[in-house]
Each structure stands twice: as structure tokens, then as C-alpha cells.
């Protein structure tokens, strides 16, 4: 799935990458950029929008001081002004589009957390912006990176709903066998354990993929392993259930006689709704009487207790 | 090994050092001041937790008192005493904590604009958690830092913050804005005479592989000893 997304074989209008301080997604983001730059995209402009100076300098370093694709409109205004930075960005894209109506844009925003902070942690502006981008035909794709360490889970859940694809970056630590696998390449390899939730717009299904991706220091995908977690999980569950039943000091298994008796047993809820039952109910209603046995201490009064109500 | 062999501040390319400490990590601030004095780098020093005389006393112990005083007089070390300003604001009912850093930004802006375009600066803030405790909104702090960073690409920001007194979300966001992140913690095994704590150094400037170096440290009278884990 990740390869399809990188190669644009699987179209996704909006992608959210969720990483953490321990498992940073910087290299994955750079792989997206590299893949885009490698291929010919007619009339599609790359717009990398850094949100802070450190990120900008890293991007300049990555792009080899060639600032092609770097758009500093957000960096110029974030925190410094109270303006709606998304509106400024969309206005700028509109201007560019007016010069060339066929122009399309690939937007990359490197830090969702700081964007939220600019709007006093109110996700409304960001939600509207993503929805607007999803509607606009000139925006071919928007990719945003969020750090889950400083995001409220409720806000994150809200944001996830508006993105077509959500990529979780989990384990990035290489195991010994994985290190051995790539030892001959003489390249630095980075591992990404990804969970991808992708909404297919044709079938409206949300497909979940668990994949392990290995990329090298030139941002080339070396290997992608697909993980089938559900089956293995089921197997594990079955085994544990058997193990639990093994060590018991009482019998929980049923013999053939027990099973026969169980089959013949009619439970009360099974009678409900049958005709017989309804007849019995009616008879009960007609013949019902109240038998009252007074207690020793009861003060039985023959007078009608509702006499004063003038019925 | 000594701290200056592990972190060579002269060669360091990072422009935002975040020192996140849950114990007393002020030794790193003293070390950086000593470095800026020796390298004769123009330094703006924003004090929120201690008075300038406290830092003078520490530098005197480190053998830098004369150069510290001369830096103060010749203007290569400029102190912004926000601790006094905070206490004044506390008594003034009309004060707005959101504007605490406004004067600092304006003065630094003037000085940076006058300077040579290649000149390097340090802005050391000790410590940001005091400003947060005094009621300065987090957005105002981020606004100040963003504005300062936009002044000059040679201005190196050093921010000291105590994790126990601050919102962890803010520290996480600041760490994303930083290039060099120091996390100073107590020893996980408990008190020790030989070791004061542990320090993790996250070099985020490198694109590909953000290295994490972990050391145990011991603060001595005149230096800081590090032991690699």
C-alpha cells in the first residue's frame, strides 16, 4: 500500500502521517518528496511548507540548498500574525492558478501541531482547510505530519476523519536479522513499521494495512513487507483458550448425555411469541384474583380508601 | 570525558538548543555562558530564575569573572532582567503578562539589524518555565521564539525549561522546533555520590538519523564529567 501511495498508483487526496518523538517520520516524508521529484508531474507544483526555522533548514539541507518547492508563506506568518494562514495559502494558490489554469499543487505541511497552536489549539480551521483542499481539483494531494506526543486524542480522532489516508509510524528499531539482510548493500537502512488506514472513494471502504518498509539513505524503498496480523492474533487467542482449559480442577466439558439434555431443554424466552403462550396469558387475566392474608399488626379497614376522591 | 569534548559548540550547526530538565540542569547554562564569553560571541541573556549576580558568582568560580564583567561593559553580553519585571508586574494590576517579551524582542531586533550579516548571536533564556508559571500564555512564548528566529539565521537560541513545571505538550512542540535537544534527568537508580544524573543528547539537525547519545554526568567545581552509557 505504501508503495502504491508513493508511486501515486493509489490516489489519495489527503494523507496524514502520525509519528512520535521516538519514531520520527522525517525520512518517510523525504521519501514522498524524492518520489515526487523523480517522476514527471506535468503542471503539478510541489509546495513544501515548513512551519519552523529548524524544519526549514533541514529541508534546505535535504534539497541540497536548492529551494525548489519550498514555500515559506506559513513560516512568515505562523505565530507572528493573527491571520488565518490557511486562507493566505489558498489565496496564493488561487493567484498562481489564475496565471495558469491547468496548474495543480502538491502541498506538504511538516508540522500539524504548530499549525494547531497558531489557532489556539482549535482544530476547526484545520478541518475546514483539509475539507477545502479535498474539494479543490487543483490540489492534487496534501500531506501533513502530526506528532502524537503533543496532540489531544480527541482532536486527533476528529482530524483523522477528514483525511483519506492515515499513516501511523510505529517501530523504527532494526532487528539483528533485518540488519543482516541489508548488510551487503553498504547503505544506511531505516525501518518503518506502518499502519495505513486508507479510505477508498469508490467503494467507501476503509482498508487497513500493516506494513514494514525499509528505505535507504538515498530515500529509495528497499523492501516492503506486508504483515497479516489478524490471523496470527486469532491463532494466539485459540491457543491461550486451550491452555486455560487444561489446568482446571473441575469439569467444564459436556458429555453426549449432557449435550442431549441441553438440546431438549426449552428455555422460557423460546416460548415467548407462541400462540399457546398468548392463550395462557388471556386466561390468567380473566381469572386472576387477589388473595390477601393480613398480618397480625395490620390495621384492616373496610372503608373504601378512595372514598374522598369523588369517583 | 569532559562536556566540551562531547559537544563542540564552536562547530555546532544547530540553531535551537532546548534544555529540558527535571532536575538541576543549570550547569549547562553556566557552561554555555562561559563558552560565549571565551568565544567572544554576542550573547543576549534573558534571566527569569536567578539574578545576574548569581551567574557572576558561578562564573567567578569557573575563573571567568573578569571576562564576564568586561563582556557586560563592552556590550557583548547583554542581560535582560525579566525576573524583576515579573515581580513588578505582580504588583501592577494593569500589567499584561502576554507582553512580557515585547521589549526584549524589540531591543534584540534593533541590535541584530545593526550588526554584520555574518555575525553569530546567542540568545539564552533561563528559564522559560518561570514565565509560564507567571501566567505568560504558551502562544505568546511561541510567538516570541518564532519572531526571534525570523530576525537572523545566525541567531542561536538556547532555551532552558523545567519539565516538572511545564506542560509536556509545550515541551514536545518546542522539541520539534529545536535542533539539539538535551534531556537532563535524575539517575533512575536513585541517589549516588559519584554521579549527579543522566543527560540524553538528541541531535535533530541530521536529516537521516537523529542520533541519541546518553551519558551519566558529574558536576565538579570547575568542570562537568560525562560517562557514556
Automatic annotation (TrEMBL), chain A:
Residues 290-311 are annotated as: Disordered. Pfam families: Elong_Iki1. InterPro entries: Elp5, P-loop_NTPase. Keywords: Cytoplasm, Nucleus, tRNA processing. Its main location: cytoplasm. Residues 296-311 have a biased composition (Acidic residues). It is found in: Cytoplasm; Nucleus. It comes from the Eukaryota. Pathway: tRNA modification; 5-methoxycarbonylmethyl-2-thiouridine-tRNA biosynthesis. Gene3D superfamilies: P-loop containing nucleotide triphosphate hydrolases (3.40.50.300). GO terms for biological process: tRNA wobble uridine modification. Belongs to the ELP5 family. One of its GO terms (molecular function) is tRNA binding. This is Elongator complex protein 5. The keyword Cytoplasm applies. GO terms for cellular component: cytosol; elongator holoenzyme complex; nucleus.
Automatic annotation (TrEMBL), chain B:
It holds the Pfam family ELP6. Coiled coil: none annotated. Pathway: tRNA modification; 5-methoxycarbonylmethyl-2-thiouridine-tRNA biosynthesis. GO terms for cellular component: elongator holoenzyme complex. It comes from the Eukaryota. Gene3D superfamilies: P-loop containing nucleotide triphosphate hydrolases (3.40.50.300). GO terms for biological process: tRNA wobble uridine modification. Belongs to the ELP6 family. This is Elongator complex protein 6. It comes from Brachionus calyciflorus.
Amino acid at each position: 500500500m505504501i508503495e502504491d501511495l508513493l508511486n501515486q498508483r493509489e490516489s489519495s487526496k489527503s494523507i496524514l502521517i502520525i509519528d512520535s518523538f521516538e519514531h520520527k517520520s522525517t525520512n518517510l516524508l523525504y521519501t514522498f518528496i524524492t518520489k515526487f521529484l523523480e517522476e514527471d508531474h506535468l503542471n503539478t507544483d510541489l509546495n513544501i511548507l515548513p512551519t519552523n526555522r529548524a524544519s526549514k533548514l533541514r529541508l534546505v539541507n535535504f534539497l541540497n540548498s536548492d529551494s525548489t518547492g519550498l514555500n515559506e508563506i506559513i513560516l512568515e506568518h505562523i505565530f507572528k500574525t493573527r491571520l488565518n494562514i490557511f486562507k493566505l495559502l489558498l489565496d496564493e494558490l488561487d493567484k498562481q492558478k489564475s496565471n495558469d489554469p491547468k496548474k495543480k499543487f502538491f502541498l506538504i505541511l511538516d508540522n500539524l501541531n504548530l499549525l494547531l497552536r497558531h489557532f489556539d489549539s482549535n482544530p476547526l480551521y484545520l478541518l475546514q482547510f483539509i475539507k477545502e483542499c479535498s474539494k479543490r481539483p487543483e490540489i492534487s494531494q496534501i500531506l501533513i505530519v502530526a506528532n502524537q506526543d503533543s496532540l489531544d486524542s480527541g482532536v486527533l480522532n476528529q482530524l483523522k476523519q477528514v483525511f483519506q489516508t492515515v499513516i501511523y509510524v510505529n517501530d523504527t528499531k532494526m532487528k539483528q536479522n533485518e540488519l543482516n539482510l541489508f548488510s551487503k548493500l553498504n547503505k544506511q537502512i531505516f525501518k518503518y513499521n506502518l499502519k495505513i488506514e486508507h479510505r477508498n472513494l469508490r467503494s467507501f471502504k476503509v482498508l487497513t494495512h500493516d506494513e514494514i518498509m525499509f528505505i535507504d539513505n538515498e530515500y529509495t524503498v528497499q523492501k516492503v513487507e506486508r504483515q497479516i496480523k489478524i490471523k496470527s492474533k486469532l491463532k494466539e487467542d485459540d491457543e491461550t483458550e486451550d491452555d486455560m482449559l487444561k489446568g482446571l480442577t473441575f469439569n467444564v466439558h459436556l458429555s453426549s448425555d449432557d449435550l442431549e439434555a441441553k438440546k431438549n431443554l426449552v428455555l422460557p424466552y423460546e416460548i415467548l411469541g407462541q400462540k399457546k403462550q398468548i392463550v395462557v396469558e388471556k386466561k390468567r387475566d380473566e381469572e386472576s384474583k387477589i388473595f390477601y392474608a393480613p398480618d397480625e399488626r395490620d390495621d384492616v379497614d373496610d372503608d373504601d380508601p378512595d372514598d374522598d376522591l369523588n369517583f | 570525558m569532559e562536556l566540551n569534548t562531547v559537544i563542540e559548540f564552536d562547530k555546532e550547526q544547530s540553531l535551537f538548543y532546548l534544555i529540558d530538565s527535571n532536575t538541576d540542569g543549570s550547569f549547562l547554562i553556566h557552561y554555555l555562558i562561559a563558552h560565549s564569553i571565551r568565544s567572544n560571541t554576542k550573547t543576549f541573556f534573558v534571566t527569569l530564575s536567578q539574578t545576574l549576580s548569581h551567574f557572576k558568582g558561578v562564573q567567578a568560580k569557573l575563573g571567568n569573572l573578569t571576562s564576564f564583567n568586561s563582556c557586560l561593559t563592552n556590550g557583548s553580553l547583554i542581560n535582560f532582567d525579566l525576573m524583576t519585571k515579573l515581580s513588578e508586574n505582580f504588583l501592577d494590576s494593569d500589567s499584561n503578562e502576554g507582553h512580557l517579551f515585547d521589549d526584549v524582542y524589540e531591543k534584540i531586533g534593533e541590535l541584530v539589524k545593526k550588526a554584520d550579516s555574518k555575525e553569530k548571536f546567542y540568545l539564552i533564556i533561563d528559564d522559560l518555565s518561570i514565565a509560564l508559571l507567571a501566567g505568560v500564555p504558551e502562544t505568546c512564548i511561541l510567538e516570541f521564539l518564532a519572531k526571534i528566529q525570523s530576525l537572523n539565521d545566525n541567531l542561536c537560541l538556547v532555551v532552558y525549561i523545567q519539565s516538572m513545571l511545564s506542560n509536556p505538550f509545550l515541551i514536545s512542540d518546542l522539541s520539534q522546533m529545536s535542533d539539539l535537544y538535551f534531556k537532563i534527568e535524575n539517575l533512575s537508580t536513585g541517589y549516588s555520590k559519584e554521579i549527579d544524573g543522566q543527560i540524553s543528547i538528541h541531535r535533530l539537525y541530521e536529516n537521516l538519523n537523529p542520533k541519541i547519545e546518553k551519558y551519566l554526568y558529574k558536576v565538579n567545581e570547575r568542570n562537568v564529567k560525562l560517562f557514556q552509557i
